Amino acid sequence: MALLQISEPGQSTAPHQHRLAAGIDLGTTNSLVATVRSGLAEALPDETGNCLLPSVVRYLASGERIVGKSAKDEAVRDPLNTIISAKRFMGRGVADVKSLGSRLPYDFVESESGMPRLRTVGGDFSPVEVSAEILRTLKKRAEDSLGGDLSGVVITVPAYFDDAQRQATKDAAKLAGLNVLRLLNEPTAAAVAYGLDRGSEGVIAVYDLGGGTFDISILRLHKGVFEVLATAGDSALGGDDMDRVIAEWIMEQAGIAHDADHAQMRRLMRDACDAKELLTDVPSTTIRLERSDGTFWEGVLTREKFNELIDALIQKTLAPCRRALRDAGVTREEIHDVVMVGGSTRVPRVREKVAEFFQAELRVDIDPDKVVAVGAAMQADVLAGNKPEDEMLLLDVIPLSLGLETMGGLVEKIIPRNTTIPVARAQDFTTFKDGQTAMAIHVLQGERELVIDCRSLARFELRGIPPMAAGAARIRVTFQVDADGLLSVTARETNSGVESSVQVKPSYGLSDDEITRMLKDSMEHAREDMDLRQLREQQVEADRVLDAIRIALAKDGDALLSAVERAEIERAMEVVAHTATHNSDYKAVKAAIDALNRSTMEFASRRMNASIQQALSGHKLDDFE
Amino acid sequence: MHLDLSQNHFVLFGLQAGFEVDGETLALRYRDLQKETHPDRFANASEQERRLSVQLAAQINEAFRVLKNPLARARYLLELNGVTLDDTDTRMDHEFLLEQMELREALAEVPHARAPFDALEELRDQLESRERALIEALHRDFDDGSAPALARARDSVRKMQFIQRLLEEAEALEEDLVHQEH
Fold it and tell me: Which domain holds residue B47?
């Protein structure tokens, strides 16, 4: 009779515990959180049954923050302290924010780092902190609804977001205490939600027209693999622009084209938005306007007139569509499905024009407001390890080229747009003057040739180059973009080995110190102990690492390790397990985890090699079929 | 045994080194390799495995890019055969250079054309058809594989680089034209 097995106290016997994971769509106008329950992805509602959380945060003098609908309801009454559309300021400098137009009612102040902060009665806050409040609200909603701590989340960003905007989003998640499994591009998330990879093969387009941004992505689908071929867009084009052209038309008709005040403009924009939404279902609508002299204007806006007004805007979305098709190397005829995402794709004229352009069937069956969050939830479920057998794989690209400043204010592209990530690429540069001992590295993102036309991502210096004749030094600059689309840059003089590197922090981003300070501040606010929190984080990390290694050992330990090597890893595991349960110093737990990670380095590399061999040998069999 | 990140791209994909590459087989192997190495597969793995997976997936992406693109593939093959492409050597045959000058002039005229986008499209078509002819020549010369054939291949590659640069300039010009429209 086989003996019954008893596990060591405190050790989990089931390596595949279900982990709570969620997908978050952090939108300009509204945000959502979704999760996979019993195999079904669904958006989670608040206590009133509403899934959409308006992306609005109101700061009170007491230090209290109100997030969502109740904040939005006060936006007109308390504009300075109620922050809407913070997403538009993410990763942007004060100058960028000012160029967004004079219609912003906020009081901006510049921080030392050049990042804009919004002045409110409750204090000054960066857009990252405002977004963190929204994320915190969604985190709480998910944890209340699921009854446990979230182990990780996938947060979506517009595909056309640059490095600074992505980094800012990740910083906001960190502030909100979320473990980000992946930043996922919104159009890719939508494609996942439609599950078009199942059974169907071919090329699809995702047309994502939101309130303020436009993305187009071209994807090739093949048995669970979503391969983004190209993406393009316009980060300042959306439904808001439709409202504006309607408002301008009303002003012209009412004869007040030049004398509408701020308050009247706001009302006009609201009325225009209402008219736009009504015209989705009815052929015409009546608009009534009170002039400032108390007289009234009344007029009818027909759908035909509305179509005429917005045709130029729709046309503007088609140029990126053409560019994406060309970058993807596919013709319009090859596109067999077009997935429509974003509230603005409800407008019939948009659907008509897009169908006409692609000559393909439009997919509109999933709620365009929820589709992105649902796709993110599905990806989060896979990344959390809840579906080990799932074949789904997303291969995404960087939306904008990355390069360096060279002589004469020109940009040398290192990684062109639409390169599949992760990617690492190196290029050699040399010195310009005799005896030059330092080199300035200026990292840029964009398609234009001149530095002034591209976005500056970071600057750093490589120092200590041994003095040589001009042109003799060999400076190798390596760009690496990870699966979140985030860049790190290393510069190295190859003759002397002098090295300098940066994790590219956006020019207007938060420094690590600032994040730590903000985290501490918010802890103190909640009367929580920072050390305790760090200990808890390390304990969770210890569990995660032990779990991962246990699974790896069970699968490949016998084949890839000698008894001695295996014993060594198991010893390091015991140290981690013991330290994590008996030691209250987070640094000790971290040190034990680091030691364990080092002891498994060789094993990890052998496993990786073995899987590559397997992938190839699997194929050689197929080839004979 | 350490993960060999310097592996030849063809070996990494289990393919025979040569200019002839079956696009479908290449894409199939690429997807299978990514399924094993992509960072999404290691979201919960140890730090080592996560770092390795980023490096390896990046290498597979790079190898795929090189093998997929005829110009990059040809350059890579020449490199494997010990034929160096000295980028500072810009001597070209006279006829080719004349043609390049004409094409360059045509590109400079594009912004002044009545329909600049159409003019650009036409120029692009011309460049692409020249590119196709060079690719055909590359097939012949790499099949041959003799020293003179490889020298001819090297010539074709350099011509393709000229054309590639013009195509990139056409792209940059379009970017500017679109920008002006906005």
Answer: 9-68
